[in-house]
Description:
Blueprint: E1 9-17, E2 27-33, E3 38-39, E4 42-47, E5 52-60, H1 63-83, H2 93-111, E6 119-128, E7 131-137, E8 141-146, E9 149-152, H3 159-165, H4 171-175, E10 196-201, E11 207-211, H5 213-216, H6 221-230, H7 234-247, E12 254-262
Antiparallel strand pairs: 1-4, 1-12, 2-3, 2-5, 5-6, 6-7, 7-10, 8-9, 8-11, 11-12
Amino acid sequence: xxxxxxxxxxxxxxxxxxxxxxxxxxxxxxxxxxxxxxxxxxxxxxxxxxxxxxxxxxxxxxxxxxxxxxxxxxxxxxxxxxxxxxxxxxxxxxxxxxxxxxxxxxxxxxxxxxxxxxxxxxxxxxxxxxxxxxxxxxxxxxxxxxxxxxxxxxxxxxxxxxxxxxxxxxxxxxxxxxxxxxxxxxxxxxxxxxxxxxxxxxxxxxxxxxxxxxxxxxxxxxxxxxxxxxxxxxxxxxxxxxxxxxxxxxxxxxxxxxxxxxx
Length: 263
């Protein structure tokens, strides 16, 4: 086989933590080997030929409502990916999952009107062959660590980001803005949803970090990069990231999924 045509492989690990302030965890995450229909950490490198699906969801609406919304996001992502692994393009899977998650949230709030307003932000990452297809709703994030450089691939869909674009506030003001957690898009909370898509051509050695704002609100990009580069392995990196977020206050639930493209 000519050089450059060998199938890529991936390892992936994830962990979620309640943090130091919240009493419940409204975050959720998915690591799914689509071809094998297998859930959980991938410590034995898997080929990307049949798809690997990673999702981080951060529920909102308070306690039971937020937990339920993020659960719907994860469960529908798993179901849709397995059902459509050969029937849809890789970049369509996340959109189908979002549509189904919205449907499930609506059904639930009809039966439980006290849950109206529940929703979840989410980052979907579908690895297929040599590409990563990303779909973003809200302010969970995906970072690419390549050649000792950390790059935020997704853009937060929240009020502060809009104010920054309009140059109404500075980056320093954004960090301390009282409404920095006010998202402009969330699955289940509104019918007017406009997910944003990204595509990354993968390289061996790439690390892809998906996380909730419980991490990014407590740990700077510079700290994240330093931890990724100084940790002994990917699982330790996740532990170190969560520990740092808690040491810095841990005011929100913290979820981290870290994948690496390997030979």
